[in-house]
Amino acid sequence: MDTATTTRYVHGYSAREAGRLGDQADTLAALLHTGTAYPAGSRVLEVGCGVGAQTVHLVRASPGVHLTAVDVSAASLAEARARVTGAAPGADVVWRAADLFDLPFPDASFDHLFVCFVLEHLADPHRALTGLRRVLRPGGTITVIEGDHGSAFFHPASIFATAAVDCLVQLQADAGGDGLLGRRLQPLLAGAGYGEVRVEPRPVYVDATRPALVEGFTLQTFTAMVESVREDALLAGLITEQAWDRGVTDLRRTAEDGGTFHYTFFKATAVLPAG
Ligand SMILES: C[S@@+](CC[C@H](N)C(=O)[O-])C[C@H]1O[C@@H](n2cnc3c(N)ncnc32)[C@H](O)[C@@H]1O
């Protein structure tokens, strides 16, 4: 999927990454999807659906919608279809392999757009948001969810763990993306011509009293995401092997008794002005 407009997807398309996206979506479903429910009969487009990890939660929260899900990766789409067919068999979903910069839909085809963890991987998120306006009907809404790796802080603090997280941010930037995009959602949406932009920070806080989040977020989502770029970080000479291993060990220590972890997602909604 290397094109002039799409950056290399820093996390790759491995089975392990597909599992991580599923864990992430399931663990964070309430946090990320609360407030997103579309009326039955609405035409909804999910942009960059990946392996369908969010799609399952979208269709469960909005029974009766007509969902179209697109991704550039045909392999991810096949996995998404299998996942959603298994988890929500009655859902009305059309799957399309397509580049979000060149969508094969007529103007104003959709009432609502849903874009989760996609903009951070694009070289030009402004152009993506501007282009998406074409397929949204006037008065329709867009919902965008992004993380921001700069929002990660934890106890015990560790310069090695922070350095490992910084490697991920650097690699994503080298690939043309932005792992710190969450903080830019309001200016991006407003700059792309959307109105009524509202951004809600949605923090995740984890300690030993929240064992499901210790496993599902600190270990299986965040630490797994950092660990997935080990080889690239070492190959790029961003960090020594010893410092990397210490960083990951220290990240894992935040999931042990006495450790704590914080991360903030940003969820934005906006409306396409009429006229
Ligand atoms: C981090 S994944 C997120 C998947 C899903 N939204 C989720 O939250 O689980 C990013 C997805 O965006 C897709 N993507 C990247 N550039 C794209 C483009 N130009 N057009 C369509 N999909 C794209 C990738 O193939 C990948 O599946």
SSE inventory with pairings:
Blueprint: H1 15-33, E1 43-47, H2 53-61, E2 66-71, H3 74-87, E3 92-97, E4 110-116, H4 125-132, E5 136-146, E6 153-155, H5 159-174, H6 185-191, E7 195-206, H7 211-227, H8 230-235, H9 241-253, E8 260-271
Parallel strand pairs: 1-2, 1-4, 2-3, 4-5
Antiparallel strand pairs: 5-8, 6-8, 7-8
Helix pairs in contact: 1-2, 1-7, 5-9
Residues 1, 6, 9, 21, 25, 48-50, 53-54, 70-73, 76, 99-101, 116-118, 121 line the site of S-adenosylmethionine.
Number of helices: 9
> What string gives the helices and strands in order?
HEHEHEEHEEHHEHHHE
Rg is 18 Å
What is the class in the CATH system? Alpha Beta
Domain Methyltransferase type: 45-142
Protein name: Methyltransferase domain-containing protein
Pfam family, one: Methyltransf_11
Keywords: Methyltransferase, Transferase
Provide a brief overview of the structure:
The chain has 9 helices and 8 strands. The chain has 275 residues and is an alpha/beta fold.
Please give a structural write-up:
It comes from Pseudonocardia aurantiaca. The protein is of the alpha/beta class and 275 residues long. It has helices at residues 15-33, 53-61, 74-87, 125-132, 159-174, 185-191, 211-227, 230-235, 241-253, and strands at residues 43-47, 66-71, 92-97, 110-116, 136-146, 153-155, 195-206, 260-271. It has one domain (15-271): Rossmann fold. Strands 1, 2, 3, 4, 5, 6, 7 and 8 form an eight-stranded mixed beta sheet that branches. β4, α4 and β5 (136-146) form a beta-alpha-beta unit. The protein binds S-adenosylmethionine.
